[in-house]
Amino acid sequence: MKYLVRNTLLAATLLAGTATASADSIPGMRGHDHTGVTVPDMAQAVDFFTNVIGCQKAMSFGPFADDKGTFMQDLLGVDPKAVIEEITLMRCGFGSNVELFKYTAPDQKDATPKNSDIGGYHIAFYVDDVAAAKTYLEGKGVATRLGPLPVNEGPAAGQTIMYFQAPWGLQFEAISYPDGMAYEKDAETVLWSPKDPAK
Question: How far apart are CA 35 and CA 56, in angstroms?
């Protein structure tokens, strides 16, 4: 059955004229559009993304709920009585977007995962100078971690990183690799980068 589904997807992809897509790809997949993050306080999150990170608010909409049915569970895999009070989309430089959610739900957990937890995550922003980013963030009262840490060995050599944290616990990373990374010399696939192509 698995092979039948895969072959059917491949045939559909070829017939649609997108022969560059592989059999192991979502048909028509073009790239990462956004990362969605649920936040405890929308105003605080929008302020942080705007006035600390430097993103721009693109739009807000909502609320969404279904008092009588299972729409929220069927669409989003959440409790049927969950309410999305607001969704706000942020445009962040030359990268993809960040979608902020303000939810309430009967079974809502208030736990911020560490990067080591299953389901843990962070949002990384490319910056021109990690040391300057650290100085700026600390001047804004933002908690930063060890760094700037240059990576000097292995395939990631050439990058410099530093993690930091929003007031409500969301993990971020500042990363820079102005001269590329070591793996690029022999790589068939090179990672997408928001670096200014003129540099």
Answer: 15
Kindly report, residue by residue over 139-187, the tens digit of the pLDDT: 999 999 999 999 999 999 999 999 999 999 999 999 999 999 999 999 9
The three state secondary structure string of the chain is CHHHHHHHHHHHHHHCCCCCCCCCCCCCCCCCCEEEEECCCHHHHHHHHHHHHCCEEEEEECCECCCCCCHHHHHHCCCCCCEEEEEEEEECCCCCEEEEEEEECCCCCCCCCCCCCCCCCCEEEECCCHHHHHHHHHHCCCEECCCCEECCCCCCCCCEEEEEECCCCCEEEEEECCCCCHHHHCCCCCCCCCCCCCC
The Cα–Cα gap between 164 and 177 comes to 18
Is 57:127 a contact under the CB 8 Å cutoff? no
Domains and CATH numbers, the chain: 32-110 (3.10.180.10), 111-192 (3.10.180.10)
